[in-house]
Amino acid sequence: MDKNYNYERKKLMLPEYGRHIHQMIDYLKTIDDRDFRNTQAQAVIAVMGNLNPLLRDTADFTHKLWDHLFIMADFDLDVDSPYPIPSAATLAPKPERINYPDKRIKMKHYGKNVQRMLESLVGEEDMDAIEAVIGNIARYMRTKSYEYNQEHPNNEVIIKDIKRLSDNTIKVDEVALNNLKSEYKQPYSAHPKKNAYQGGRPQKGVKNNKNQQGKGGKQHRGKTK
Questions:
Q1: Cα–Cα dist 126/116, whole Å
Q2: In this structure, are residues 69 and 45 in contact, taking their beta carbons and an 8 Å threshold?
Q3: Rounded CA gap, 143 and 187, in Å?
Q4: Tally of CB atoms within 10 A around 205
Q5: Other CB atoms closer than 10 Å to residue 201's CB: what's the count?
Q6: I need a labelling partner for 46 at 20 to 30 A (CA). Which of 91, 108, 189, 211 fits?
Q7: For 56, which DSSP code?
Q8: C-alpha dist (Å) from residue 224 to 95, 123, 181, 214, 215
Q9: Cα 44–chain centre separation
Q10: In this structure, are residues 141 and 98 in contact, taking their beta carbons and an 8 Å threshold?
């Protein structure tokens, strides 16, 4: 008896339809009479619809069946379809190449968006709107600076960085930024403080209790004559 293993068979394009449907479609390719081939294709579509009877009333169900028919035929089937015949390029289009940004980020810990927001303010005439936006940007820059450097920067540093990112094209109200309060709160650290002794050895600057007792501490009791 000859053994017929699945790994020796033809690969199924849509395994959910089963091998019998794929064999029916392969049979359609062998039919020379076009009218008879169209009739048999309609019969195969009906069988495919019987596999999912609950989806017959859904929109574009028949359209999906015809698309699946051509997919299982590897887009090599000459029949009359009531819908546009798909191709491999239309069902699996090749994505367009995305151009990699060629501009380097001036200050990486602030990110690219801060630089873009400052560049968008160039040419704005409403000074009140500029001050409001720059105030929000300054708060955000303080937050990112703390996340990157673990320290709160001074207002002078923020003002200097804003001028650098905007190439000195934006007028900054230094007085308003100096009076601006940061709403960022330092997260609570749950780590306990380290003990004075680590690994059984005292740290520098911490004297041993025995040395303290021997020098000016409690005197050792001895026998009195």
A1: 18
A2: yes
A3: 12
A4: 6
A5: 7
A6: 91
A7: T
A8: 99, 95, 71, 19, 21
A9: 43
A10: no
Whether residue 62 contacts residue 4, with contact meaning beta carbons closer than 8 Å, is answered with no
Nearest to 203 by CA among 212, 195, 214: 195
* Residue from 84, 83, 78, 87 nearest 35 by CA: 78
Return the number of other C-beta atoms located less than 10 Å from residue 177's C-beta: 17
User: Is 142 within 8 Å of 184 (Cβ atoms)?
Assistant: yes
pLDDT on residue 44: 94
**What is the residue whose two structure tokens read 């000459």?**
78
Token pair for 21: 């449907």
Cα–Cα dist 203/215, whole Å: 19
- Residues 98-119 as b/e (b if ≥16 CB within 10 A, e otherwise) read eeeeeeeeebeebeeebbebbe
> In which residue are the tokens 């630089």 written?
115
| CB-based burial label for 219 (10 Å; 0-12, 13-18, 19+) | exposed
Global pTM value: 0.46
Average pLDDT over residues 116-138: 82
CA distance 131 to 175: 11
Note whether 77 and 44 are within 8 A (CB): no
Length of the chain: 225
pLDDT in tens, 45-80: 999 999 888 777 777 899 999 999 999 999 999 999
The answer to whether 68 and 14 are in contact (CB under 8 A) is yes
State the Cα–Cα distance between residues 72 and 88, nearest whole angstrom: 11
Joined tokens for residue 26? 């392969």
